[in-house]
Write a structure and sequence with these properties.
Strand content: 15-25%
Largest sheet: 7 strands, mixed
Helix content: 55-70%
Oligomer: single chain
């Protein structure tokens, strides 16, 4: 009877063993282990595998790819492999997730760890198989007709996901090669979009394009390269900061750039002032979060940056919804592009926090979303460029049509004159007058187009583009004539307060009035008054020394100070600050240096109380009494 009890107990243990063990004999070449793993959570300490852990209760796995989200615990995984064949079997235990700090594999039959890998350890794959992918690989050999129990200890301050597979060496190399091809394809598409945005920035000279180009470099390229472990895999960089700690900084910097881009693209300043003020607060919050990432431990820094990213997405999602209700043009394409990126990031975030399971789609949803986002934004930029080109072609076709009409009219006049010179004399004269009118109109239109391209639309003085074109010519003329040239930089004091107190229309009227004062105060017909910036003007004075330019600047300053500005509803005065610089140029002198001196003198005027004329400290000529050195 006692022998029967022993036999039954042995049979029960064998059946339980068969139910829990994973037999390597006949196993697929690429097998996920999630359902075959048992898990245990413990605190992080310096102890390894102890009898207490061996005897603890391990919970069974419920998914092929385990996901524990952000946790400060140490995760223990237990699994048993058996080999019922007559030959030893080797398999590659690999974890396809690079954001793990410490990984230690133990065998129940050995007291020392089999492998110690992870980001916190230099040369993380020195003991493992060298594969061209950011995997943690641990070769395992199970003897014939035996079984072995393994314990895997995992820690990470990132989201702790564990897509663990048991594969053959050939299957692992094939899968790693496919991964490398897929990631190279992703990076290639990202670089293509970055180059497109870069060249669009150079062509259009648009700040929005610059913000978005930098955003793609930071988010699409740098962030995902670190996320996939590329610094260590491709470049051999073992530095913890590059492989892990830089992630929160890149995330916050990316969100800062996108906040600036979206605020500019959506014209929040003019179309939604309240949302614009909130976006400024959001920019400050992103900067503050970026600074906190230098202080906080990595676990809290990455958590904070994740919440900051979600906050940016929610804010611009609400702004986009408001724009749709109001029917703002172009908002639907913006929602489509940003929505794809946000949707991918949110799915990835839900995976990170363990709310949804880990699979191919949730693991690469952010990659897919950013690619689609970049594609849509690139299409939007290309469409805008095409629209501009189309408008120019329409204008050119209109001019060509007028030219053809003019030729046709000339031919008719010549034919009519030769056929009936006397009889149609009156008609010829009439046609000649028509021709003259057409030529006059064409000339007037050409002059108007030329004036529009070099004049500021609001103040009617020359614009920045004209300044950039004419200033080098005037500089070279002064070199040939050995004549002095001076530059006056003028900035309206506290102009933003005028816009805030009286409105932008009143501010525009103020700009027009001051431009008229400047235009009427210059001495020579060759002197040029240009609108240099928002409330900043530049005046180029030929054949004028610095002292003479200072007199002109003081005259303009006094006229501005004494002028009462009114638009019928508001009456006020403004003052202006001036910077004056002049010299007799030589071939070795830089024209930009003169502008820089004038600009520096302008800012010195501002620092010294505004409403004054200032010359550079190193001006050789003695300034007149009204100019402050």
């Amino acid at each position: 009877m006692p022998y029967l009890f022993i036999v039954l107990t042995w049979m029960l243990s064998v059946s339980c063993f068969a139910a829990e063990n994973l037999d390597l004999n006949g196993l697929r070449e690429n097998t996920p282990l999630g359902l075959h793993l048992k898990t245990l959570r413990t605190t992080r300490d310096d102890t390894g595998l102890t009898d207490h852990i061996r005897q603890a209760y391990f919970q069974g796995g419920s998914h092929d790819a385990l996901n524990f989200g952000y946790t400060k615990d140490r995760i223990w995984l237990k699994f048993t492999l058996s080999n019922t064949s007559d030959l030893d079997i080797e398999r590659m235990l690999n974890i396809r997730y690079p954001l793990l700090d410490k990984i230690t594999l133990y065998s129940d039959s050995q007291p020392e760890p089999l492998y110690s890998l992870g980001r916190l350890l230099e040369g993380k794959n020195d003991q493992a198989l060298d594969v061209p992918a950011s995997y943690f690989v641990m070769p395992i050999t199970v003897k014939s007709n035996s079984f072995e129990t393994y314990y895997l200890s995992v820690e990470s301050d990132d989201s702790l996901a564990l897509p663990i597979y048991l594969t053959t060496q050939s299957a692992l190399e094939t899968q790693a090669f496919q991964y490398a091809v897929n990631f190279a394809f992703y990076i290639g598409l990202v670089i293509t979009n970055i180059l497109f945005a870069f060249f669009m920035t150079l062509i259009l000279r648009d700040r929005e394009q610059l913000y978005y180009c930098l955003f793609m470099i930071s988010n699409h390229f740098a962030f995902f390269s670190v996320l996939e472990g590329m610094p260590n895999t491709l470049l051999g960089i073992d530095t913890l900061f590059i492989n892990r700690d830089i992630i929160p900084f890149v995330v916050c910097f990316s969100m800062l750039l996108f906040t600036l881009f979206a605020a500019s693209y959506l014209r929040l300043y003019s179309l939604a002032p309240k949302a614009y003020r909130l976006s400024r607060v959001l920019v400050g919050l992103m900067i503050f979060t970026l600074l906190l990432c230098f202080i906080l431990p990595y676990f809290y820094a990455i958590t904070l940056s994740t919440f900051a990213s979600i906050l940016v997405g929610m804010f611009y999602g609400s702004v986009a919804k408001t724009y749709v209700v109001r029917g703002r043009p172009g908002i639907k394409s913006f929602i489509l592009a940003w929505g794809l990126g946000v949707a991918g990031a949110m799915i990835y975030g839900l995976k990170v926090w363990g709310i949804i399971p880990v699979n191919f789609f949730t693991s690469y949803s952010w990659h897919i979303g950013t690619l689609l986002e970049a594609a849509v934004f690139s299409a939007m930029m290309a469409y805008r460029a095409a629209q501009d080109r189309k408008e120019r072609l329409v204008a050119l076709q209109s001019l060509n049509k007028k030219e053809r009409d003019l030729r046709h009219t000339q031919e008719q006049l010549l034919a009519t004159e030769s056929a009936a010179k006397t009889e149609l004399e009156l008609q010829v004269k009439q046609r000649t007058r028509d021709l003259s009118n057409l030529l006059g109109q064409l000339e007037d239109e050409n002059k108007s187009l030329a004036e529009l391209s070099i004049n500021d639309a609001l103040t009617k003085v020359r614009n920045r583009r004209f300044f950039n074109d004419i200033y080098p010519q005037m500089w070279n003329d002064s070199i040939e004539e050995r004549a002095p040239i001076s530059v006056i930089m003028l900035d309206i004091d506290h102009f933003k307060r005028v816009n805030d107190d009286y409105g932008h229309l009143c501010g525009d009227h103020c700009l027009v009035t001051l431009a008229q004062i400047m235009q009427s105060s210059v001495n020579h017909s060759t002197d040029v008054v240009c609108r240099y910036g928002g409330e900043e003007f530049a005046i180029i004075l030929t054949r004028t020394t610095a002292e003479q330019a200072c007199v002109v600047a003081e005259r303009i300053r006094e006229n501005i100070e004494m002028t009462i500005i009114t638009d019928g509803e508001h009456t006020f005065k403004v003052t202006s600050s001036f910077g004056v610089a002049g010299l007799i140029p030589t071939e070795h002198a830089s024209p930009d240096a003169l502008i820089a001196q004038s600009d520096a003198a302008l800012y010195k005027s501002k620092r010294n109380g505004r409403n004054r004329v200032t010359m550079p400290d190193d001006e050789k000529n003695k300034p007149i009494p009204t100019c402050l050195p």
